Amino acid sequence: MPRTLDPARIRAVAAEERAAFLAARPNHVAAPTDAPGFWRGAPLHWMLDWPTPVPLRIAAAHGVDLTDADGHRITDLCLGDTGAMFGHGPEPVARAVTAALGRGLTTMLPAQEAGALGALLAQRFGLPFWQMALTASDANRFALRVARAVTGRPHTLVFDGCYHGAADETTVMLDGGAVRPKPSLWGPAFDPSERTRCVAFNDIAAVRAALADRSVACLITEPALTNCGIVAPEPGFLAAVRAACDETGTLLLIDETHTISSGPAGEAAAQGIAADLFVVGKAIAGGVPCAAWGFTAEVAAGLDRVRALLPGGHSGVGTTLSGAPLAIAAAFACLSEVATPEAYGRMIAGAMALERDLNAAITEFELPWCVVRLGARLELVFAPTPPRDAAQMRATFQPELEAALHVGLLNRGFLVTPFHNMLLAAPDLPQDAPRRYGEAVRDILVRLTQE
What we know:
Helix content: 25-40%
Strand content: 15-25%
Number of strands: 16
Largest sheet: 7 strands, mixed
Radius of gyration: 22 Å
Shape: globular
Strand order of the largest sheet: 4-12-11-10-9-5-8
Distance between the termini: 17 Å
């Protein structure tokens, strides 16, 4: 019979791990978090979302190794939530960035190397036309604007549990069957639920119903949900989504910012799904802020029509630093020399080894949990079978248990993502890391299962 963990024991272990974290990190404890300057001591509020008592402060990051402010070495299984998916400071990217520093960092004009990067993006991801952005949030915003402009339609369709960065129109969720803004959407300029429709992932009937009136400009989705926990598409679902978009004249925007961990061209390509618009960010420049968004010839023709109506020199909304020479150099080096099929082979092998050790621990301790893996990314789920949509995934969340595991793993030398239990394997993950990770998990589970 599956084992049930005692909530009081979970709370006790979480408290003990937090205390152990502080005891081992006097420099972290001494650092002020309420002094004037950064709010609560962090340059970005997300850095406060880790379950540690104070934010972990990093002194250095190389490959998969982190060194914190107290000198502890940590194996990084978060990797900047994909931003450092190929490891921290890949040598080809560092070399390209160093060379770019001597040629100027931003000009608002195409760098000499821009044509080579554009051709590489088209070859790798299968769409003929591309634009650059600083982040995937920006890329999604720009792509959604283009979708509305070229279709003349007002609405967007998203899946419950999605995350597409800071694109406001995607920040909705299903709540009792109603579409509502996510609680995390601070001070919205408008109510996104007025123009955004939201349905459950893996529910193709709901997709068809939402598109039926032909007022949806764009369906934006990851090939698999990753931010609410990994929810994989059921067989045939993505193909049915593609067909429903074709039948109703809706543009399909595939956001591969997380799922680029599946392979060199992403998860949709692996499943044979073609996009009308495509966004990829975070990982493509090896840690330098950069994203790209591509589109078909049909979308390009529509964009040309829109721009023809604008006065000269005013071509639309954008950001000045997008496509700057520094990002162009870093992205070309990363995509051509770092994000290779061989690197993906090592990443996926490392993730499979982590999966095996995690499954072995689940079996050993007779826990009603499972592991979901998507290429080089995997997640521990507190349920016996993988959820098929966000509502089912949300029902598995146990924040205090997550905290006990996260801080416990950090105390044993492993960093995982601050939300849920997601791991990401870099190409240079040491061969013994999965075994050591499994031993760390077992050590924590021994304490969690004590009577």
